[in-house]
């Protein structure tokens, strides 16, 4: 009797296992028969595998410039952001393009996005990629002033020019630091602004200050207005036209370029 009970239990277990296996096979077979809706990238389980990025935030180089030139053709990006750098504005323009093509707005360029962008635009010309450098008073400005918003500051002519997409919209006289406190040359950006700034180091007013390199800034100087080039700054770019720098201060934004060079 005991042996019979054991056989019945074992038979029940085996039967249950077989049913479970068959049920599992049925479920899998049924799952295979369900059609999956197409997605823009492969799916592994429930986790998306995102497409490989060709260009993304932080990318630099001439290929990024070509990408930006094509986005400019579509009026998704302003000319001022043609700068070889995949920054915030380029990323926003890529998202807009992706949305217009029904692509998930990932904000970076994968092969699918790039192919669709190539199809929607033409090969940028040399002029589109490298707009002509502005010429003022017979002198070419620095090439970095040809695109975007720039404070183009020429140490040779002692001029500051407010340039937007290669057009000089404002010009003013400036003076620079003395030999021991020379104004640094190179490409910078406006880091911060201070309308009524006072230097803690020299205890002197620096109104309408636009800082671009450490403590060096473009600002109004009453001393420059009074003494002209007889004096010098401690490294800043002094402006003596109060009315102009007031206007300039309101136009310039944090992040705009500052190019200090010699022509």
UniProtKB/TrEMBL annotation:
Pathway linked to the protein: Cell wall biogenesis; peptidoglycan biosynthesis
InterPro entries: LD-transpeptidase, LD_TPept_cat_dom, Peptidoglycan-bd-like, PGBD-like_sf, PGBDSf, Transpep_catalytic_dom
Active site: 219, 236
GO BP terms in the entry: cell wall organization; peptidoglycan-protein cross-linking; regulation of cell shape
SUPFAM superfamilies: L,D-transpeptidase catalytic domain-like, PGBD-like
Pfam families reported for this sequence: PG_binding_1 (PF01471), YkuD (PF03734)
Domain L,D-TPase catalytic: 149-261
GO molecular function, one term: transferase activity
Keywords: Cell shape, Cell wall biogenesis/degradation, Peptidoglycan synthesis, Transferase
GO cellular component labels: extracellular region
Protein name as it appears in the record: Murein L,D-transpeptidase
Species in which this protein is naturally found: Kribbella sandramycini
Source organism phylogeny: Bacteria, Bacillati, Actinomycetota, Actinomycetes, Propionibacteriales
